[in-house]
């Protein structure tokens, strides 16, 4: 009973202390509120100055951000403009270089001179393209084919050589005649393609001169492969006075000893006139009568030349 009374007394004391603490906190809040109101009334200009500084700082930061965005945009636009200008300049220089190269080729007076100028221009990058086979996936297959042809030819296995050539002598084998392969270099195409064609020529020559095959076997083989491969034709386009350039093409073919291989010649408009002239003359007559470096396109009414250039 004494313990219960003691506990009850302690609880009452703590309750009274708690009530006193609550009252004290309430008084402190009331006093603090009135003191804040008094301070605000007396020093409200300090608050306004502080708020103004804060707002001004925010506006300054926002202005700096906007200025940074403007500078970044201006920098990007200027960079793009500069890149475009440089690209245009380099393209213009490249076009000028290509035009000068073409002019040099056009001024060549013989096929040998044309080849010399072409090889000189290929040193600017064409020769590297010729030896680089990264953009020509058939290069490895061509290299293997060259090796097989060479082994059969050197070891005298002419039956195997005939079999290999029968599958190779056709137009655009492995895409080696695609026009994309003849627009990067003035003096030729990929070195691996030229090596392949050279090995084909050596193999055909070996078959032609070998005593291991009879004349009938050789004749049957070459007749069959010629029919499969077909023949090259010279097609001359029209174009008025521009058709006079066909004479230069014929001159180049004669100098390269390729003209006598052409069995078919066709032409359109002015090209047909040139084709008729070619069909009526042999190489000697063409060189003497037609292929004239001083030929002119100006004629009198009677057909004679007005002046020579």
Automatic annotation (TrEMBL):
GO terms for biological process: lipid catabolic process. Residues 234-309 form the PNPLA domain. A motif (GXSXG) lies at residues 267-271. PROSITE patterns: PNPLA. It comes from the Eukaryota. Keywords: Hydrolase, Lipid degradation, Lipid metabolism, Membrane, Transmembrane, Transmembrane helix. PANTHER family: NEUROPATHY TARGET ESTERASE/SWISS CHEESE D.MELANOGASTER, TRIACYLGLYCEROL LIPASE 4-RELATED. This is PNPLA domain-containing protein. It comes from Octactis speculum.
